[in-house]
Amino acid sequence: MSVGPCDVCGHPFNAEHMEAAFQAAHAALREGEVAVGCVLVHTATSKVVSFGFNHTNRDKHSLSHAEFVAVEALQERLSPAVLSSLEDYELYVTVEPCMMCAAMLALNRIGHVFYGCSNPRFGGNGGVLSVHDNVYCSCGGRESDRAVKLLQNFYEQENEAAPDHKRRRKDEETTDPAP
């Protein structure tokens, strides 16, 4: 587990904030959502000001990723004059932001991102594309194994919201095909 400052820019890492992101991810898992959680932290005060976890199954909305939920919650509390960008904030998230979330964070000029495991399928912070380049610094590999285990826990259970042809049913016996 990497607990030191950011390998890229030296920005300090706070393990308590990452722990809060994992607590949000556990909440997602309990609600039958993909186990991704995050917290937004005001950099100057080191205070968690917002959190989010995936709500895509509940909301039936593709924008209900943890990062969008956290940013929207903060935007609802602060006026546009106060919150013109996220440059004074940092994000701790259990999984590398997808390309869509990385683009949203870049457009809102987030100050810094720390994430748990990489996202080799949809990652926007270098996993697939580097959407964040020249906008914000991103540092991954923070409790990567723990983040992967949470995702595995989600995918081992039946996702009632998945389309039938993609749903993995608990009652179906899985067998290896004969040679």
TrEMBL record:
What InterPro entries does the database record attribute to this sequence? APOBEC/CMP_deaminase_Zn-bd, CMP_dCMP_dom, Cytidine_deaminase-like
Q: Which Pfam families match?
A: dCMP_cyt_deam_1
A GO molecular function assigned to this protein is: zinc ion binding
Query: What does the UniProt keyword field contain?
Result: Hydrolase, Metal-binding, Zinc
Which residue ranges does the record assign to the CMP/dCMP-type deaminase domain? 12-129
| Residue ranges of the region described as Disordered | 156-179
Superkingdom, taxonomy of origin: Eukaryota
Enumerate the Gene Ontology biological process terms. tRNA wobble adenosine to inosine editing
Entry's PANTHER family? CYTOSINE DEAMINASE FAMILY MEMBER, TRNA-SPECIFIC ADENOSINE DEAMINASE 2
**Record-given protein name:** dCMP deaminase, putative
| Organism of this sequence | Bodo saltans
Lineage, uppermost ranks: Eukaryota, Discoba, Euglenozoa, Kinetoplastea, Metakinetoplastina
